[in-house]
Amino acid sequence: MRLREDSLAYALQQAAGMVAAVIDGGNLTDAFERLLASHPGWPDAVRGAVRDLAWTTLREYGRGDAVLAQLVHTPPPVEIRALLLVALQRLWQKPEQAHTVVDQAVEAAVASMPGLKGMVNGVLRNALRRQGQWQEWIEADPGARHACPPWWQARLRAAHPQDWQAVLEAGRQRPPMALRVNPRRSTVADALAELEAAGASARVLENGALLLAQPRAVARLPGYAEGRLSVQDAGAQWAARLLQAEAGMRVLDACAAPGGKTAHVLEGADVDLLALELDPLRAGRIERNLARLGLAATVRVADCRRLESWWDGRPFERILADVPCSASGVVRRHPDIKWLRRDTDIARFAAQQAEILDALWRVLAPGGTMLYVTCSVFDQENAGQIARFCARHADAERLPIDGRTELQLLPNAEHDGFYFARLRKAP
């Protein structure tokens, strides 16, 4: 049975495929990109509907399982489990569409596994009859209550005892959309006027980021194709400002893909910038982003820890170390992270970060500054990491950020979660 692309059944089926891939241990973004590659003619409406269903289901993952545990006693195939999770999430979102959702979920089952259409129909109708008990079932499961694994909650409580619940709640919301103006091709005032004329309201934040009142398709952003604007989270836009690169400086962006921070540095100053990236495909994204913005840098595929493979012996006056991390501050954009990560992964990330910091410190010029950045909200990767680094390196001095020793941004309605620390090497 072939489903119509403009039907809810089709969107449920395609979203369930992505959720199933994550349940099997796959990456959500990779699954979506494969799906787009196999459906190049998808209209924006279909692409948006499929993405919204998958991302929303995974932001709330745990709640659906708590309900299914009370209704399904024989585990179904992963494809059907995923379809049920997506359908339940749609019922939470659109309770007024209950009949349609059940009907379309059954249609999706017929197209995927016709022998299990009766199971899907029975489970969803039983779920609706017992809808008054859903919250009770969810509250009884700590992971379901906050849509987050218990170990993750424990780390957040320890790191942010006053804010951990707000951080968890932010992780369940749709993320804000912020823009960065390329000062070489436009101004903030002109960009705001263009957006307003296109029906997109925005306001300027403290660091110059433009926060859209409502997210908007990139293709509908005036000035994007011409390189006047870029999409970049407002929190991430602090990096270039805190790095304080000046014209003529030699600058290293050590873990550069996809290139947003690289471009931001180049937009602000005429510097000699080397961008390193371990993944060749992601390195290509850096080059494409720079080309769109009319910027130039040297982009190399290399592991920044292996100095012999890329360093020419000349020190850098500024280093941006936006290191690999748990990505715990950006889970609303990448909701599979909460469920794919394990508690033991944090120590592995911390060890990798320490290796990167120690290697990059060797190529930083005396008197130079290194900006350490993560999109994490876990102390082991942030404040703890920098404290351990400073204990190992007597020539490291922590430079203040607005009177503080570090800047920890927690996800909220304006930005994602980021950590920044500025380190100066003794002359």
Automatic annotation (TrEMBL):
Gene Ontology molecular function: RNA binding; rRNA methyltransferase activity
UniProt domain SAM-dependent MTase RsmB/NOP-type: residue ranges: 167-426
Main location group: cytoplasm
Pfam families in alphabetical order: Methyltr_RsmB-F, NusB, RsmF-B_ferredox
E.C. number: 2.1.1.176
GO cellular component: cytoplasm
Entry superkingdom: Bacteria
Compartments, as annotated in UniProt: Cytoplasm
Nucleus keyword on record: no
Family note: Belongs to the class I-like SAM-binding methyltransferase superfamily. RsmB/NOP family.
Function in brief: Specifically methylates the cytosine at position 967 (m5C967) of 16S rRNA.
Protein name: 16S rRNA (cytosine(967)-C(5))-methyltransferase
